[in-house]
UniProtKB/TrEMBL annotation:
Residues 755-819 are annotated as: Disordered. It comes from Manihot esculenta. Residues 89-338 form the ABC1 atypical kinase-like domain. InterPro entries: ABC1_dom, Beta-lactam-related, Beta-lactam/transpept-like, Kinase-like_dom_sf, Mito_struct-func_regulator. It holds the Pfam family Beta-lactamase. Residues 795-815 have a biased composition (Low complexity). The lineage of its organism: Eukaryota, Viridiplantae, Streptophyta, Embryophyta, Tracheophyta. This is ABC1 atypical kinase-like domain-containing protein. Residues 481-897 form the Beta-lactamase-related domain.
Amino acid sequence: MGCGNIYSRRARVFAVASLIYLDYKAVQQIDKWTVDSKRAALWDKAHERNAKRALNLIIELEGLWVKLGQYLSTRADVFPHAYVSHLKKLQDSLPPRPVQEVCHTIEKELGKSMDDLFSYFDRTPLATASIAQVHRARLINEEEVVVKVQHAGIKTVILEDLKNAKSVVDWIAWAEPQYDFNPIMDEWCKEAPKELDFNIEAENTRTVARNLGCRKNDDDSKPVKSVDVLIPEVIQSTEKVLILEYMDGIRLNDNESLEAYGVDKQSVVEEITRAYAHQIYIDGFFNGDPHPGNFLVSKEPPHHPVLLDFGLTKKISTSMKQALAKMFLASAEGDHVALLSAFAEMGLRLRLDIPDQAMEVTNTFFRTSTLANEAFENMKSLAEQRSKQMKVIQEKVKLKEKELKRFDPVDAFPGDIVIFTRVLNLLRGLSSTMNVRIVYQEVMRPFAESALLGSVNKGPAVNSQWIYDTPPHSDVETKLRQLLIELGNEEKILGIQVCAYKDGKVVIDTAAGVLGRYDPRPVQPDSLFPVFSVTKGITAGMLHWLIDNGKVKLDDNIANVWPEIRTNGKDQIKVCHVLNHTSGLHNALAVLRGANPLLMCDWEECMNQICMSVPETAPGQEQLYHYFSFGWLCGGIIEHASGKKFQEILKEAIIQPLNIEGELYVGIPPGVESRLASLTVDMNNLSDLLEMYSRLDLPSSFQPSNIVQLVTTLPALFNMLNVRRAIIPAANGHCSARALARYYAALVDGGTIPPPHSSFSKPPLGSHPHIPKFPSEKTPKKQKGRNGSDGTRLATDPSSSTSDVSAAGSFASGDGSRKNSVEKIFTNPRIHDAFLGVGEHENLAMPNGKFGLGFRRAILNDGSFSGFGHSGMGGSTGFCDIKNRFAIAVTLNKMSYGGLTREIIQLVCSELNIPLPEDFSSSGDRGPDVQLNIGGIAD
């Protein structure tokens, strides 16, 4: 076959490859001295002569090189027209092998003479391809078939060609490091030899036909998710001969026949794309070679696509299938967190924390296909995009030009996704060849969703692992788990954690459900949930810690600590007014929310807006919920009073003493994405919110008239990676329930650190290092503090590593001795009075208000205060009962606006004989989180 012995083949490959490479390098130099009007012609001529060289070499060598040529010929969306035009001649139009050789192979493989096998055998092949050629025939029983016969000696040639191709790829990677195709080549070397056994192809054909519901004369048994394609039935197979049912059809490259039969090319390519989406996302078993030569279109209406040639077929694991589906949906929804999580699940590792660039690359995979006449502009756009991405990498890593050329941002590239990306590229090339535009995100999305929802929707009724497998700590936890199962079967829960302490000991620590709507991984005790305004309770505790350490006082004017805030009548606002929601600055950041919600990620801009704001009520007169401004008011006081960054105080005051490293963040650092729960909305609860009328006790920018927009946009906004990484001290807490419950268990005992968390909980609480895995960007000189280049205060600061605690020292001792031996967070024996705004502090808080000083008061039906805490929009909550030494935390990702949290709290408190605060004892579908965040605070 082709060009003599293996050594001469290798020499020819390298000779032509070198010639083409040097030709293009020369044209690059000539281009610099060519006028603009002649550059296009210069490159067109170069493409034309090099395409002819490539075609002549491939025809000369045949074997594996034909497959490469076929692949290039399908990429009309990215390759010059000359290559597509010349190389498409390789699609089933190679010189045929002698018929005597073909007949000899058939007789040897099947053990019978041609006359005993066939009543008719067409000596002229229907098609000749790289590995085999196909003849039409009629069996002795008169059944019309096609016979696929492997070329003699092709196995030796293919295996040698793989070695040669590998050598060429290695050479290209050395000469042009940015074009390193070794991961693709390695996977091809592993998969290509399987095409040489037609028994494997026969079984692959049967499997795909069965999966797609293509069983002949069995329409009633087609699965619900079947697609409208045809696959020929396998009649007989050996290693080198395959006999298939004959299907009369039109080749996809036969435009005249397609038009004559009235074939809708758009519909055909869409159905082919759906068939591949089904194979990838539903079956996890797909044909890896969808070039035009492997398809026909049936001549009879409705002109079904016919799928051929299943030699190169890839099987992927369920976990890989789900990760690919998650990657697709993350790309479709712009969810950076889900994308990085999908990368981690499939084994794709990046050397840098570059989520934006990773999203751009992934979007390129699934972008809408381009028409053939748009190929040049598409190539130009992709090249510009790549240059932009590499520039970002260069600036991030501080690489020189020569270093950048050899820098690979991918640390590990799993082989399983090589064939997947090849299929996507071939499908894109197919649509360009057919001159149709396919919107992949629309066509493939239902199949990707099905791949994940099939697992996600396996609620407790059918999933014995829905409750995370840890031993119950008490009878009440056993009863709670039964309630969670009931709520899960009613689809009220997607993912949830509940943790409770009684008398300093853990009595509940349960995790259940899944991490997200498109994330079927189980919720674990260390999973991180976004908890919205629960974060205010954390921020308030930090400020009280500074007060306890003598850095600021409750009755200090905040302007004395934070001079910039003095303007516009704010000089009389005290620290206690901020904590009590009576500062009059409840609408201070409404302008940011209305103009651009993402500005809340910009710490400096939010601080500037606070400083420029004008109070709407006199300090201490009205308690109006500071739903948005509370965090930055507290954050500004914290930073100015301490002289440290917000994250440093969070670490020193709360995270390290409680040993909850890695499970409580205000703004997540890189490297924890795989543990994040994703938010979704319980749409069944929206009707309850729509019944609300305008409330005078709510900020003007937070009226129920905008509630539908609010609750539907919040999940999308807070699932964004840049939002999750920003320091938003009123709303961007990410924590596990066990970390949050431990926090309140310490507060309920006046700041005394509880004993180590339950050993049942795995992994152990505090076992995650609170250290970013990637270096942070350097702060521009014009920015103060540790902000990103756009002013965003990021959780990738060095302040989130363990090193800053040693540098921070301790306010209490002055020498840092307290930080490793702390037994109490607070020294004030009356700290509960400070939290609640009672006793000697009662003149600092509204006497009958829902808030004390920073915390929501837990009010019993008789009007007394039993404890304190804070709930968040969506259902997450944390609170404690002082007298009963009880603390509980609930975190969930399906944002519930009804009584889900209340049901859980009611059960637990009832079993433990804990009096219910009125927020949790009231009836109805609206839970305490909605009452707090939307339902007002003075009623």
